Amino acid sequence: MKKAHLFLYIIVTSMIVASCGKEPEPIPDTTYSFFVAGHTYGTPGGNDIGFYPFFKNEFDAIRSYPRMIFGILTGDIVQISNEESWDTIDSEIKTLGLPVYFAPGNHDTYNYELYRERYGDPEHNHRTYGSFRQHNDVFILLDANIDNWNISEDQLDFVQTVLEENKGTVSHVFVFVHQLIWWDEHNEFQNIVINWPPYTPDTTNYWGTVEPIFQHYPAPVLFFAGDLGANKPATPYMYYESGNVTYIAGGMGAGIDDNYLFVTVDMAGNVNFDLIALQGDRHRFGNLEDYVLP
Question: From first to last of its 294 residues, what are the pLDDT tens digits of the chain?
């Protein structure tokens, strides 16, 4: 073999050997967790102006939960919507040390102007609903107080726009609202006892307008609400799968079956739940997915 050819052979062979011995680039682990907590002011008629004490006791556990990166409060964050209450909430969230997003409840918006001023989106006329992306998932935060449990007009347009913009690029759609806007006294959820049944409207546009949008979306939709568990008659939590939409709700305040939820999305796209009891054994409720509608 000629020297030039021999030299080239050695170089190419060395490159092949080096290439074969090189470790492949690791696939980034996109696993992440978030918490969902509803009715976090706690007991109706109580004296606390910040978070429910049982919930505040969980802050260390929340911070230390594997891959925890943010939280979502599904409404009734404060009992009385005033500066003192919101200042206290903001201060307590700082001690938690995590980003926290709001889906407002009726108590939070009794003083709508104050809520809009403090937490509305300044780039969109201080609207009280919004969305964000996390890895391959989209999160939608709704405000069902604007139109008596209906998602209508500008807010409905917003939902449709977000879904269309993310179509084909997301693995899951996570939706958050305070009220169980899917509840009706004549449907399969009729035996779920919400916190204050007289507060429910006679009809909403959920099943006629909103549900078909989610049901026919090309990614699974997980819908969370936080208007349960505030008193002893209320159902503490619920879970129900209906086609493309999974309905989840929980809350706290009754002092007996108070709860909140950890949600983990792993790198394979699996969604896992960890239902936490605030009294007694933390895992005494078992698996959220085992819940059966009453």
Answer: 444 443 434 343 444 444 445 566 777 899 999 999 999 999 999 998 999 999 999 999 999 999 999 999 999 999 999 999 999 999 999 999 999 999 999 999 999 999 999 999 999 999 999 999 999 999 999 999 999 999 999 999 999 999 999 999 999 999 999 999 999 999 999 999 999 998 899 999 999 999 999 999 999 999 999 999 999 999 999 999 999 999 999 999 999 999 999 999 999 999 999 999 999 999 999 999 999 999
Does 13 map to a domain?
no
Domain range for residue 266?
32-290
Residue 165 in 3-state DSSP? helix
User: Would 11 be classed as within a structural domain?
Assistant: no
**Alpha carbons 93 and 87: distance in angstroms, whole number:** 10
Q: Is 27 helix (H, G, I), strand (E, B) or coil?
A: coil
* Closest to 226 in 3D by CA, of 188, 185, 258: 258
Structure tokens at 45: 């008629």
Does any domain span residue 3? no
In a domain? residue 232? yes
Please give the tally of structural domains in the chain: 1
Structure tokens at 2: 């000629």
Nearest to 147 by CA among 174, 175, 112, 114: 112
User: CATH number, domain at 138?
Assistant: 3.60.21.10
Helix locations, the chain, DSSP H: 3-21, 53-56, 59-64, 83-96, 112-119, 153-165, 211-215
Q: How far apart are the first and last CA of the chain?
A: 84
Instruction: Scan for tokens 């979502």, then name that residue.
Output: 72
The pTM of this model reads 0.91
